[in-house]
């Protein structure tokens, strides 16, 4: 599912909200998650999962074409760990309200 499909689904599910408002809400939530991660914070959505940043240290790599050694700089990479409820639902656990 892409962002526009999520917005369309939510707008359909909540017809009392304007499509542009749903789009703004989704964008704001995602922007805040990005901002928090870029500031070095962890974002936890209970039951869904937690977003954090992993720091990958600099290392010695190799140019695949020439085999020459190259220095790969330190990187910050997003990391997502699923929450218990999401994991259970993906693995055939009980559905809420069932």
What do these coordinates show?
The protein has 98 residues and is an alpha+beta fold. The chain folds into two domains: 1-39; 42-98, HU Protein, Chain A (Irregular). It has three helices and five strands, in the order ααβββββα. A three-stranded antiparallel beta sheet has the order 1-2-5. The chain has a two-stranded antiparallel ribbon with strand order 3-4. The longest helix is centred in the first third of the chain and has 20 residues, at 19-38. The mean pLDDT is 93.
The residue-averaged pLDDT reads 93
Q: What is the CATH homologous superfamily assignment of the largest domain? A: IHF-like DNA-binding proteins
The strand line-up of the biggest sheet is 1-2-5
Q: Helix content range of the residues, please?
A: 25-40%
- Class by helix and strand content? alpha+beta
């Amino acid at each position: 599912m892409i962002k526009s499909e999520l917005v369309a689904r939510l707008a359909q599910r909540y017809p009392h909200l304007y499509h542009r408002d749903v789009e703004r809400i989704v964008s704001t939530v995602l922007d805040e998650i990005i901002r928090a991660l870029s500031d070095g914070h962890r974002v936890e959505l209970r039951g869904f999962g937690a977003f954090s940043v992993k720091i990958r240290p600099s290392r010695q790599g190799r140019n695949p074409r020439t085999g020459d050694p190259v220095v790969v700089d330190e990187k910050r990479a997003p990391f997502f760990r699923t929450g218990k409820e999401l994991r259970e639902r993906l693995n055939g656990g009980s559905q809420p309200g069932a």
